[in-house]
Specification:
Elements: H1 10-50, H2 56-68, H3 70-73, H4 104-113, H5 127-137
The structure holds heme C (HEC).
Heme C (HEC) is lined by residues 68-69, 71-73, 80, 82, 84-85, 87, 90, 96-98, 100, 107, 110-111, 115-119, 121, 133.
Length: 142
């Protein structure tokens, strides 16, 4: 029963229905906006955590790594006598796969001089390019 209005009035019922529809719509839009906003926040935070931006040097190093190193160190169908070691997280350990200390200087040296079946890059990469690759290896390789 409506307060202050005759029961069963058509006009009242229709406007009540309209108000209810508008309320439902407002709730629906509000709810969708909230879901969308939380999805964006989760995506932004999650994305930031899993893939922090690379610095310019690391970006360059990534490109050089792709051109010069990935063919051996990211593939595993090579006919090399010794399987190239996995370089992901190289600097998380104190030693390189060979047992040499995992320092920038040592890795820089391996790249320039080569090691056993790994070719030397002193004719192909500049000192600076090698430094960028080392910077990229420090990211753990993402
Ligand atoms: C032709 C294949 C090949 C290419 C190209 C290559 N590597 Fe290697 N790499 C190897 C092999 C094989 C080893 C293992 C050497 C050994 O210990 O006998 C190795 C070892 C390494 C090691 C570990 C050294 C140690 O002391 O344990 C590092 C670091 C490395 N490579 C970095 C690189 C980087 C950076 C590039 C690109 C500039 C590169 N490699 C290009 C085959 C390759």
């Amino acid at each position: 029963m409506e307060m202050g209005r005759p029961a069963g009035s058509n006009g009242t019922r229709r406007s009540k229905v309209r108000v209810r529809e508008q309320l439902a719509k407002a709730f629906l839009i509000g709810g969708l906006a909230a879901i969308l906003a939380s999805a964006i926040i989760v995506w932004a935070v999650g994305g930031f955590n899993s893939a922090p931006q690379l610095t310019e040097a690391q970006e360059d190093g990534k490109a050089y790594y792709g051109q010069n190193c990935a063919s051996c160190h990211e593939e595993n169908q090579l006919q090399l006598k010794k399987i190239p070691p996995n370089l992901h997280g190289l600097f998380n350990r104190s030693k390189l796969p060979s047992g040499a200390p995992a320092t920038d200087a040592e890795v820089h040296n391996v790249i320039l001089k080569g090691k056993n079946t790994m070719p030397s890059f002193d004719q192909r990469l500049s000192d600076e390019q090698v430094r960028y690759i080392v910077a990229y290896l420090h990211t753990g390789i993402r």
